[in-house]
Design a protein that fits this description.
heterodimer, A: mainly alpha, 2 domains, 3-stranded antiparallel sheet, 49% helix, disordered N terminus, B: 349 residues, mainly alpha, two-stranded antiparallel sheet, two-stranded antiparallel ribbon, 11 helices, 4 strands, 66% helix
């Protein structure tokens, strides 16, 4: 379908719908309402003869396509065959949004020649929850509750990026202990996220036991999260001004146990996967992304590092005092699935190394800032001090005000560069929030990694990109 | 034997084989779930019945009562035929497998197998090739793309592994001199030097190749790309539900049992094993040995599934054609030479 043709048809369709069905009465009105809402929903005979969902893209041009688009019967994708010669050889398959391996509700529009994928088009939006917009209606303190749900596998990173951005505007000092707790939690979160990744990567290429093994160790980390924050995910723990609570008594023992159990589990994965010929066959040279493509598509994090781009925000733009700890940035060479596996496995080790240093050097002090405008006063003070009571009341009713301005803060989430851009107009709520989600960029890089591979490789590649659809759609 | 008696024996045998298979399937599914759970640090089914033994029954009943959804675009006749085409060969294969020592009832000797075909091995190969029709028909008649991909994969995979499987049996036939399964088991009686059982394990390459091809034939991991859940959703049975799906499921597990039973019969001495005790006990023991060996092989199936990732389509094909089949051919040549030397002595003596 040519570009003008399409526009024209849409225009005429809009003209048709512009008849105000709500004001027309009697038989005429009913017919119009029927045309608008019911008529298109029955499957037409010429659609029925095609055997699949993808058929809509193959409809002949002269059909009332634009009208169907208007009614929502047909999905208007800007899809065209590049080469009409291959038309008979190709079939279209919709992988997702309900597919076991698309990691949520990602839809991949695959153009297949036999089992070979000639074209991939990721289609997103099935998990769009409007979190950026919702954020504008929540106070600054409520914000973390909202953003923690975006990338549900690394909630702490979402909270941290948001809180750091707000703190930039507030210009408050964060106590050392709060910063250390933040790093402790985010690095453990990186471990849990990568553990889940290795589990699903294994599952997706058919190693069913890896799924459970990865979860087994992740569960230990989540247990610690639960102990500290009360929740296994969506913690709402890191807030502007510090963290929600101090670490519980005996946290050192828990961390020490984790530092023994998790590496033991990781060693097991290495044992199962590293030398496994089938695993190597399925990962080596699959889903390659070059460093140039990484830059072009905005691919960051472990995937970029696996391609040989030595870029880690924890080194480049250290946040929350992470520069105090020693760690290496593992970098791969080939940019294939196997390198991503090795990079992520090494990152687990490095994160645990940071956790170990935090365990040894955890500073004493408060877990949130003393600034009473930002953090509510302790319960005891409310009984004694009128001022404390007023602060408490103000924070929990109208919320605190943040000076007008804009701030950008990005953190290295397990998936890559997670950035939060916040604009304040001086009120008690953000004027605008924008989130730069790593998974979003990774999904747009999928075609580069998947084109001309087999279906099985697609799954392997997709799993290795580790997209979280909550992060993609927000 | 009179005609009536023959008929009666055959009917009882068929009925016994049928009920044995159905019982065994229930246990195999339970066994697999328990074993995989154990390998994955889980508990596995433990609610229905003691140790969850009735879980499969519960699942079967559930599937029976579920609606069998028929998508609008199916080729109805073939769509209905496919599950039956999967189950029937699976049931028939087992008829030639002897599960225990023959016993005498009055003046009659009764074999513990459905029947003793003198072309037993060919019969097995023929019927196991039938399984591919079920998969291809199911995939094609579903009128949907994932099943179609599964069907295409299935036909390619089964043809290539069928070849290796058949070739792996050639040394067995040469070595034992018979294609009757009863005959093959009889050859494996006795022992070398009094303590090593005289099973066909000397044909170990054949054993390995046959077993690998068997895993591929039954579409089990790591060759389960016909129904690769993470890639093509459910493969050929994506569009099946309710009891039609249950028939495929049943066929798959019967096939696992069959392949294990046939491997035991051909290579691991069948029902042979030490017998002792009173007559009735020494009559039951061979059945026990047979089932024990079969269970061990089924465990290998399960073990492989819990350990290995799935192979890719092209890797699977190249493994079949470029490694397995040449290896089998080489082994045929070697074993033929060895058997020839054993029968007729070295050419220069």
């Amino acid at each position: 379908m040519s570009e003008e043709n399409q526009t024209e048809e849409i225009d005429s369709a809009e003209g048709a719908v512009a008849v105000d069905a709500t004001t027309a009465t009697g038989e005429e009105g009913r017919r119009q309402i029927h045309d608008m809402w019911v008529a298109g929903t029955e499957e037409r005979a010429d659609i029925r003869q095609f055997t699949d969902e993808g058929a809509q893209e193959l409809l002949p041009v002269e059909d009332e396509t634009a009208l169907d688009i208007q009614r929502g019967v047909v999905v208007d994708d800007d899809y065209e065959f590049e080469d009409a010669r291959d038309e008979d050889e190709l079939q279209i398959i919709n992988m997702g949004p309900q597919h076991p391996s698309t990691h949520g509700v990602l839809r991949l529009h695959l153009e297949l020649e036999g089992e070979t994928i000639r074209r991939v088009k990721p289609i997103i939006g099935y998990l769009h929850t409007g979190m950026e917009k919702t954020g504008e209606t929540l106070t600054w303190l409520q914000g973390p509750t909202n953003v923690t749900r975006m990338d549900y596998l690394s909630p702490f990173h979402n909270e941290l990026a948001y809180s750091l951005a707000v703190e930039k505007l507030l210009n408050v000092e964060i106590p050392e202990r709060a910063q250390a707790i933040r790093i402790l939690m985010t690095e453990l979160n990186r471990v849990s996220s990568h553990l889940l990744w290795v589990a699903t990567q294994g599952m997706d290429i058919g190693a069913i036991s890896m799924m459970i093994y990865g979860w087994r160790e992740r569960e230990l980390v989540l247990d610690f999260f639960e102990k500290v924050t009360g929740l296994r995910m969506n913690h709402n723990f890191i807030r502007p001004g510090g963290v929600a609570a101090d670490l519980p008594d005996g946290w050192e023992d828990d961390i020490e146990a984790l530092l023994v159990d998790v590496p033991a589990g990781v060693d097991e994965y290495h044992e199962i996967l590293d030398e496994n010929p089938i695993f190597l066959d399925r990962c080596q040279g699959i889903g390659v992304i070059t460093p140039a493509e990484c830059r072009a598509y905005g691919v960051t994090g472990a995937i970029a590092r696996a391609s040989g781009v030595d870029w880690d925000l924890r080194k480049a733009f250290p946040y929350s005092g992470i520069e105090k700890y020693e760690f290496d940035v593992p970098v791969g060479k080939h940019g294939d699935v196997l390198d991503r596996y090795h990079v992520r496995m090494a990152e687990i080790d490095q994160s645990l190394r940071i956790v170990k240093q935090i365990l040894e050097t955890m500073p004493a002090g408060d877990y949130r800032t003393e600034d009473r405008k930002v953090t509510p006063p302790p319960r005891k003070r409310i009984d004694e001090s009128m001022e404390a009571l007023i602060h408490h009341f103000k924070i929990f009713t109208s919320g605190y005000k943040v000076p007008a301005g804009e701030a950008w803060q990005s953190v290295e989430s397990p998936r890559g560069e997670l950035g939060v851009y916040i604009v304040s107009n001086g009120g008690a709520k953000p004027w605008r929030i924008h989130v730069r989600a790593p998974s979003f960029a990774h999904v747009q890089a999928l075609p580069a990694a998947m084109t001309d591979t087999l279906i099985a490789d697609t799954i392997s590649t997709l799993a290795s990109m580790d997209p979280v659809l909550g992060d993609v759609d927000r | 034997m009179t005609g009536w008696e023959t008929f009666l024996t055959a009917a009882i045998k068929v009925l016994a084989a049928f009920s044995l298979l159905l019982t065994v399937v229930i246990l195999v599914v339970w066994f697999e779930r328990k074993a995989v759970a154990d390998l994955q640090n889980r508990i596995g089914p433990n609610r229905a019945g003691p140790w969850g033994l009735l879980q499969t029954v519960a699942d079967g009943v559930k599937l029976l009562f579920k609606e069998s959804v028929t998508p609008r675009r199916v080729e109805f006749g073939l769509y209905i035929l496919a599950p039956i085409a999967a189950l029937v060969p699976a049931l028939l294969v087992f008829l030639v497998v002897p599960i225990g020592a023959p016993f005498t009832l009055g003046d009659r000797v009764i074999d513990l197998s459905g029947t003793d075909l003198n072309i037993g091995l060919l019969y097995i190969l023929a019927l196991s090739s039938m399984a591919v029709y079920a998969v291809v028909l199911a995939g094609w008649s579903s009128g949907s793309k994932y099943p179609l991909l599964g069907a295409v994969r299935a036909s390619a995979q089964m043809i290539s592994y069928e070849a290796a499987m058949g070739l792996a049996l050639v040394p067995v036939i040469l070595f034992t001199g018979t294609t009757s399964l009863k005959g093959i088991v009889e050859v494996q009686a006795g022992s070398f030097g009094g303590f090593v059982p005289a099973w066909n394990v000397v044909l170990i390459p054949s054993f390995l190749i046959f077993f690998i091809a068997g895993v591929a034939e039954t579409n089990r991991a790591p060759f389960d790309l016909v129904e690769a859940e993470s890639e093509i959703v459910g493969g050929y049975h994506t569009e099946y539900s309710g009891f039609r799906f249950a028939l495929f499921f049943l066929a798959e597990y019967i096939n696992i049992f069959n392949i294990s039973a046939i491997t035991v019969t051909l290579f691991l001495g069948g029902w042979h094993g030490p017998t002792f005790g009173p007559v009735w006990f020494s009559w039951l023991l061979p059945i026990f040995w047979f089932l024990l060996k079969t269970t061990l092989l089924i465990f290998v199936f399960v073990w492989i599934r819990a350990t290995l990732p799935r192979m890719r389509y092209d890797q699977l094909m190249s493994f079949g054609w470029k490694r397995l089949i040449p290896l089998t051919l080489l082994w045929i040549v070697l074993s033929t030479l060895a058997i020839g030397v054993r029968r007729m002595g070295l050419p220069w003596t």
